[in-house]
Amino acid sequence: MSTAFDPNQYAAQLEAKRQRLIELLQPFAAPEPEVFDSPPEHFRLRAEFRLWYENGTPHYAMFERGDKRQPILLTQLPIASQRINQLMGPLLEACKADPVLGRKLFQVEFLTTLSGEALVTLCYHRPLDENWDAPARELAARLDIQLIGRSRGRKRVLDKDYITECLQVDGRDWHYQQIEGGFTQPNGAVNQKMLGWALDAAGHDQRDLLELYCGNGNFTLPLSTRFRRVLATELAKRSVYAALDNLAHNGVDNVTLVRLASEEVTQALTGVREFRRLQGIDLDGFDFSTVFVDPPRAGLDPATLELVKGYDRILYISCNPETLAANLTELNTTHRLVRCALFDQFPYTHHMESGVLLERR
Questions:
Q1: Annotated binding site, which residues?
Q2: Which of 117, 180, 264, 353 does the annotation list as catalytic?
Q3: How is the chain split into domains, by residue range?
Q4: pLDDT per residue as tens digits for the range 85-129
Q5: Residue 340 is a catalytic residue
Q6: What pTM did the predictor assign?
């Protein structure tokens, strides 16, 4: 659900989210939340547009949720990054002017970085072949972008299918591959603040960290500096490969990454089941003091809840404060909530990203 875009109302909308988080966490004697705001404009680093044709002329279009018949036609998108807005007009004009680029084009996806790198994916309702490459390469060079073509079952990559983001956290630069089609945090400025908060909440520990749902290593990289060793887990193959590349690119050598679902991690750590993917990894050699979780909107499942209750500290990043509150009802029996934060990843919506630190009672 979204609210009207009005930078003049941003502070009031953020305050409403703060009050909502306070209300949800009140049963757990939560301290005052730390609030991390967003730039009021040009904060979103990725955007996806359908193309809507009127008299054969394409326009960028978005739709209200659940309504695909009444388009909202756009020439600019003020919540999107400056780089996306700079590219929207020239890219569409080039596709209108060249039938190879424009024929049966139905969707355009933009992915950008804080430093201005851009990757654009053009999606077609027709097969793509090598005839697409020459005009696409000329357009990519003219606009200084990475350009990818997609059609059913086909993907044409001219150079590479990723761009590199640089995030500054606690005085250090971290470099991340942002892969086309993979998950990335959409609000880079708030992501930096979120990483900084997580690093501060983690403190410095001579023991080890267990991380579930590590994705492409967004949190893993900076958190690796605060623990002796890290065991990070992720199920999605593409995210695992991206995380491995990011660890290598940043020279991080104290992280062991395994491809397991959270319930499989629980089975492995409790000795219920052995996994071939853990061969050669000495789980008993880890000395975990802290568990870090960044689960999907459904929150932690019952088995994972039982697992995390076994650690001295729980660092929990949530994309759904309602399921966070439900999980805290259980975690509150063994841990106390000592820090909480609100990260405004999605201004002008009711969506809230939050974080809590819990310590054993």
A1: 185, 213, 218, 234, 294
A2: 353
A3: 7-40+187-360, 46-163
A4: 999 999 999 999 999 999 999 999 999 999 899 999 999 999 999
A5: no
A6: 0.93
